[in-house]
Write a structure and sequence with these properties.
This protein has helices spanning 56-61, 94-97, 217-220, and strands at 2-9, 12-16, 19-25, 37-42, 48-52, 63-65, 69-73, 82-86, 110-116, 119-125, 132-139, 144-150, 156-160, 166-172, 234-236. By secondary structure, the protein is mostly beta strands. It has one domain. β12 (144-150) and β13 (156-160) form a beta hairpin. The N and C termini lie far apart (33 Å).
Length: 238
C-alpha cells in the first residue's frame, strides 16, 4: 500500500546525502509588495483520525496552517529507494537562475522542512495552471502520522486514515489572483546562504509537463487552485 503527497507552491527540493529535503521558504513577510505566503497541510477532513495543536475549525476544513517548524511523516524518514528520475531535471534549478545561490540547511529561512528518504517523486504541471508541482508516492501501510515540531511552542500532530492523499502547500493566501504572482520567486532568496537579489521565474513555461492526475480537493473544488509558473516547485544543490 502507499499514499501520495502533493507539493504545491514555493517548495525547493534540496539534494542531500540521504535523499531530498523539501524546504519551504518563509514568505510570511516578503519584500517588494509581494503577497504574504503561508504553509499548510491540506487533507480531506473525513480522513482525519485525530489531531493535536490545531483548533477544531482547522480539522473541519482539512486545512492545517504551519508555524515555523520541522515535519516528519510516516514512511518518509525510513531509508529506502528514492526514485527521482521523473522529477529532478524537470524543475527550475535555483543554482542556474543565480550563480551565487547556495543553500545551507542550518541557516536557510524556512517555514517548514521535510526530509524524504524513500518513494517516487514525479514532476507535473498544476491542473489549469502553469506552475510545476511535485507528487511523492510513499510506500506505507496503515494510518499516517504527521508530527510537526515548531521552533516555538508545543509539538503538533495529525493522524490520517490509510492511503490519505496529502497536500503540502506554500502559497499566497488568495492563490486565485493570477497575475499578482509574477515576482513570487524572489521569496526563494531566503533559502540562500549567499546574498542573492533579483531572482526571477524562468522565462520558459513547463508546458511539456503533463497535468497532475491528482484528485485532491484543492484541484477539484469549485474554485480550484491554479498557480502560475512563478509559484513553481524548484530544485537545488549542487
Amino acid at each position: 500500500m502507499s499514499y501520495k503527497i502533493q507539493f504545491l507552491g514555493l517548495v525547493c527540493f534540496f539534494r542531500d546525502r540521504e535523499g531530498r529535503l523539501a524546504m519551504l521558504p518563509d514568505g510570511r513577510n516578503p519584500d517588494d509588495g509581494i503577497d504574504p505566503h503561508h504553509a499548510t497541510i491540506a487533507v480531506d477532513p473525513h480522513a482525519v483520525v485525530s489531531f493535536s495543536g490545531w483548533d477544531a475549525e482547522s480539522s473541519r476544513m482539512g486545512l492545517f496552517r504551519l508555524p515555523p517548524c520541522a515535519i516528519s511523516i510516516d514512511g518518509l524518514d525510513i531509508e529506502g529507494r528514492l526514485d527521482t528520475t521523473a522529477h529532478d531535471g524537470l524543475l527550475p534549478r535555483l543554482g542556474r537562475l543565480s550563480r551565487n545561490f547556495q543553500i545551507d540547511p542550518m541557516t536557510a529561512q524556512t517555514i517548514a522542512a521535510i526530509p524524504i528518504r524513500q518513494g517516487t517523486l514525479t514532476a507535473y504541471r498544476v491542473p489549469t495552471g502553469t506552475a510545476v508541482m511535485s507528487e511523492l508516492d510513499v510506500p506505507h501501510d496503515g494510518e499516517i502520522q504527521i508530527n510537526v515540531v515548531p521552533r516555538e511552542g508545543p509539538p503538533r500532530g495529525l493522524r490520517l486514515r490509510p492511503g490519505t492523499e496529502i497536500a503540502i502547500t506554500n502559497t499566497a493566501t488568495d492563490y486565485r489572483r493570477g497575475s499578482v504572482h509574477d515576482n513570487h520567486f524572489k521569496i526563494y532568496e531566503k533559502l540562500s546562504s549567499r546574498r542573492v537579489t533579483g531572482l526571477r521565474v524562468p522565462a520558459e513555461a513547463p508546458l511539456s509537463l503533463p497535468e497532475s492526475p491528482s484528485e485532491h480537493f484543492l484541484f477539484t473544488e469549485g474554485a480550484a487552485i491554479a498557480l502560475t509558473a512563478a509559484c513553481s516547485n524548484t530544485g537545488c544543490c549542487p
